[in-house]
Write the structure tokens for this entry.
Amino acid sequence: MYIAILNTTMIFWQQLLTQLQQDKKVYLLTVIENFGSSPGRKGFKMLVSDDGFIFGSVGGGVMEFTLVEEVKALLQKEKQPIFSKKQIHQGKGKDKSGMICSGEQTVVFHPLQNYDIPLIASILKAIENNTSQTLCFSPNKIAFTQDTITDKYKTEILSENDWSFKENIGFKETLYIVGGGHVGLAVSQLFKQLNFHVVVFDNRDNLNTLEANTFAHQKQVIDYTTIEDFIKEGNDSYVAIMTNKYTDDKLVLSKIIKNTYAYIGVLGSKAKLKTMWEVLQKEGFTQNELDQVYAPIGLHIKSETPEEIAVSIAAEIIQAKNTPKS
């Protein structure tokens, strides 16, 4: 069973659509590149309408205030340009944002009016239907393109006037939880709030915690020997193994360890995992393959309850997700 949720991305585009439907002129600000400790991250968006309505953020602080005041003035003019701005968050001078957090970001500015309503409606439809479509932001316009990108974002900046930013509208990180017990329930709840698509598997019928799990978008009782058939490979797939016994943990890991995912983690004590690693090596798995697995799963914050364990897992997965791949 799939449950539709109103995520923050959809809320943003709905707010933008509402402004256009009210015949307001709007500037859409989008962060298309960031480095270092920049407060604005790639994909951050903000809208500013001609009556002063503001929604979203490109990083906050004095930098954002200055950009907002600039577009407010532009919105009062007859025509609004498409342009980009590089913001360096340290020191003074050209392109300096006034912030001291270090890092830098590039923000692009697209003016929108009521004739852009069909485009925004199409974006909302793609998000609602979880349809993978590529939206391209360029110095000329915002439009869907036939190009396919495998990551959520793709940026190309050749100069201040020659750039493109592509966003996979249907891209959504999926967390596959293998094990529907108490920790799986707590992890499902937290990752739904983090806008992940949450899928839970277990091999036990009539499991009370699985039946009580109203947070997962999909729940299924399966045979773990075929687990690899149920988990999609790719850099948007995250796997958390937390079955109710050692043998099932080992079985699941052995089935998927050679596949490509953004993250694989296994719940368990260091002693249990040490034994598992020794057995897997005897079965032919390499140390390099085992080194790719996060185990014990989660950041070490001395977590004890299912809810605390869920926080540690979420922190580690967010860290993995936001760390650039070498």
